[in-house]
Amino acid sequence: MDKPKPISWFYENLPGEQLVEDAFKNIIKSNYSLSGFTIIDTPAIERVETLLSKGSDDNEIYWVKRLKADNVVDFDMWLRFDLTVPLARYVSQHEWNLSFPLKTQHIGKSWRGERPQKGRYREFYQADIDIIGNGNISLFADVEILSTIYNALNELNFWDFVIHINNKKILTGFLESLGIEKISETISAIDKKDKVKTIVPMLEKLSLENIQVEGILELLKISENQKGLEVLSFFDSIQNETLEEGISELTYIYSHLLSMWVPDHSIQINPAISRGLNYYTGLVFETFIVGHEGVWSISSGWRYENLCSNFSSSSFPGVGWSIGISRLLSILNSIWSVQADKKTITDILVLNTWNNLLTKNLDIVKSLRGYWIPTELYLDEKAKISKQLKYANNKKIPYVIIYGEQEDEKWIVQIKVLASWEQKEVKIWELTKNLFI
């Protein structure tokens, strides 16, 4: 009989790996909640016109249908490719029942039919936060988003990282100062700079003059080599209203991030970064692992002037950010193997000794679970103690409790710490006082 084959680039975890992923999600969720971002959820399936409303490539979207569907109505179901477009539909649908500014968090799966490659799956987890205003949104919303993301990534404690920040107005104003007319096309080419050896051929296809290409290449060089606000001195001699507005906004963000205890070495002003989708209009952010900037960014953010422009006559500007959990773990595993401390959620294994003591062993299990300590009883009463200990060791269960006939006579239990194989006996009524889970 042939083994079943999973679909490629739809990943699944072993138990230990799943614990690591869940731990990442919980840390991110707790930091989002600490900053007041309320949990929402949206359906995995949307109408295709909803998903295409924000400029997505329709080749990326998965279509869902019943195997024996014979009605065209059944075909109007498509898997979301991100969490932002469903959020736009959600806000426009419920705008009269929501309080603004709206602060939301959403951790969930998305599906994308792009060409699979290292660190990019067809099914993946994202962890998004957004602040959405009705009519206007304060510039401090960007600070709130950025500081929250920094706190979440910092608590994950995986490696040193740097958040690159920019404002599209700076890039737009700079290109205008060079006399470039194809602004969006040029920004799109610059956005691909990390995917190719050089963007010069792409710029030449846009019929840019040599002096314009040289100006862009100089900007890229400055962005890579200078730190902090000194990067912005590159634009001192340029007079452009859009550029000056972008610099003012970016300076505000940078200075207030420092006030929110985000260290300056974790922020990089990078006038060359951009985001491709057309509803990213102002501030944009990308996050890279230090020493591994050549790989994909692990999280990114953006400001949009009107999230719901395709769905509502009301104006909903906002700021959003997404941590690619699946991508982050994939990248970390390519740098070094992310090891799980445990392969199960269980903290204590109660050994199954003799049938006549089963009731008392179950009393121990119930007592520990009553203290919210994840506990299990070994299922096979006929298994030798050595086999049960091997089971606990293989699953990296921290503690084993032994309650046999000798312990029953003395009203004690044996607690074994598997990491050190140390063992101590305690009175049965003092069991929970001697556990430090």
Overall geometry comes to: elongated
Across the major sheet, the strand order is 1-4-5-10-9-8-6-7
What's the number of extended β-strand segments? Answer: 15
Number of domains: 2
CATH topology of the largest domain: BirA Bifunctional Protein, domain 2
Over all CA atoms, what is the radius of gyration? 27 Å
Our estimate of the beta-strand percent is: 15-25%
CATH architecture of the largest domain: 2-Layer Sandwich
Helix content: 25-40%
What is the terminal-to-terminal distance? 44 Å
Query: Strand pairing plus helix content: what structural class?
Result: alpha/beta
- Helical segment count: 13
CATH class of the largest domain: Alpha Beta
Order of helices and strands: HEEHEHEEHEHHHHHEEEEHEHEHEHEE
Average pLDDT across residues?
88
Can you say what the CATH homologous superfamily of the largest domain is? Bira Bifunctional Protein, Domain 2
**Unreliable parts:** none
Description:
It is a single chain. The chain has 437 residues and is α/β, with parallel strands linked by helices. The chain folds into 2 domains: 321 residues, BirA Bifunctional Protein, domain 2; 87 residues, Anticodon-binding domain (Rossmann fold, 3-Layer(aba) Sandwich). Helices cover 35% and strands 18% of the residues. The protein contains 13 helices and 15 strands. The chain has an 8-stranded mixed sheet with strand order 1-4-5-10-9-8-6-7. Helix 1 packs antiparallel against helix 4 and helix 4 packs across helix 9. The radius of gyration is 27 Å and the shape is elongated. The two termini are 44 Å apart. The model has no long low-confidence stretch (mean pLDDT 88).
